[in-house]
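Researcher: Next entry in the queue.
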Amino acid sequence: MAQGRVLVVDDEDDIRELCRVNLEFEDFEVFDAANGPAGLDEAVRQQPDVIFLDLMMPEMDGWEVLRRLKEDDATAGIPVVLLTARTGEEDQMRGWQEGILEYVSKPFNPMSLVEWAKRAMEPRDPHEEVERRRRILDQLRLIQDLRDP
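Model: Structure for this entry, 149 residues:
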């Protein structure tokens, strides 16, 4: 029996394959999509336990995918981990404000995928998650203020 169901939405074939191989090796069931519209369809159809989402994709970027996932009652509760080459504080802040579970910069350690997937499936107190996001946002604002006085 699978440990959980994971959807990987990324336009890079190599990233999707890297995620698939590492997660399937640890007995996760993996679905993938090469663009935003296909990712939204798969999210509704498969109801994964976690979504790994890229930001920079053609057709529909990850921000739009994230917004639509959070607006749809069928997918709003699915934890989203951003896997992205975008490392700036503005992007990180936006992700946390929009309710992501984790912000992971590319390149990333593929062995960490399993830990992020497992963590996404752990029960979480919604109030603690709000507080956790607030603390992370405060840290990012502090970094931004120190960098741009």
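Model: Residues 126-147 form the longest helix (22 residues).
Researcher: Noted, moving on.
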